[in-house]
Amino acid sequence: MTDILAAPATGSAGGDAPAPASASPATQTQIPVPVSVPPVAPESPKTPEILETPETSRPARPAPLAGLARLGRRVRLGRLARRAPAVVLLAATWEVLPRTGAVDPVFVPPLSEVLRAWYDLLLGGQLLEHFQASLIRSLAGFGLAVVLAVPLGLAIGWYRPVAEFLSPVLEIFRNTSAVALLPVFVLILGLGEPSKIVFVFYACSWPVLLNTVSGVRTVEPLLVKSARSLGLGPLSLFRKVILPAAVPTIFTGIRLAGAASILVLLFAEMVGAKAGLGYLVQDAQFSFRIPDMYAGIITISALGLLFNLLLLAVERRFSTWRTT
Predict the structure, then answer these.
(1) Per-residue pLDDT, 298
(2) Would the pTM count as exceeding 0.90?
(3) CA atoms of 293 and 111, how far apart (whole Å)
(4) Cβ-proximal residues to 162 (8 Å cutoff; 6+ apart), any chain
(5) CB-based contacts of 208: which residues, under 8 Å, 6+ apart?
(6) pLDDT exceeding 70 applies to what percent of the chain?
(7) Does pLDDT of 201 surpass 90?
(8) Rounded distance, CA 119 to CA 291, Å?
(9) Which residue blocks in 34-181 are alpha helix, DSSP H?
(10) Is 157:212 a contact under the CB 8 Å cutoff?
């Protein structure tokens, strides 16, 4: 150590050029220590390999997703291909039977004439006017039924005192037909829109209410016991266990109510209405415009089908936790 420290001291003091040459042996012996990077060099090629593996595997991940998407499209096309022949057969039968004389074409015109009448009503604006009137009434009564019947059904199904208090009244009205009460609604509320909306509301309330009560009461008891053993209180138990488990049954009642909202509305629109699909069907019958009557019936069926598909989509949205 004294020699190494002395060598640069003499070289720096004298200012001679040989001083660096005399210090070079010492530096040559110490240079390999920092320059001993070659052992680290083998690690450098490993880092690109580690980085390359996720990059090469990432592009392969979307392939299964694309395959699943193609499979889903094939399944949907397969279902459509299996269901379409029945509809095509019905349409062909409707077209052929009147033209062959198997049925009277005056009372059952061919499907092509019905579709032509439907197109004429659409171009003239009458179909859109009647469709809009029926849709507003149906959605208003159906929406009121869902908003009021679902909370009431949850309370009846979960709280026994509420069920014991309301059960006698509910049993009386649930066995009373909505069509039988239509004259009562007309006498009390008149021939305007309120009577029709309340009529639809009354008819739609019972499927929603009864299915909600059934959904709450038929929750798996093991789920309730397990949740209580984990320390969940009544409110948390209802919110995290009872309500999610009852959602499928509740939506079954909502779908039934959606179909009922279209069907019972026809009765209301046939009594004192000036617009609506029910009014269109009845007016076409009285005027003996048979193709227009069938055009209104087809529109009612299409509206009910679209309503059901919409409710199915909403049910899947709120039931994503279920396994298929």
Answers:
(1) 92
(2) no
(3) 12
(4) 155, 156
(5) 145, 146, 149, 150, 153, 250, 253, 254, 256, 257
(6) 73
(7) yes
(8) 11
(9) 43-57, 62-100, 111-124, 126-158, 160-174
(10) yes
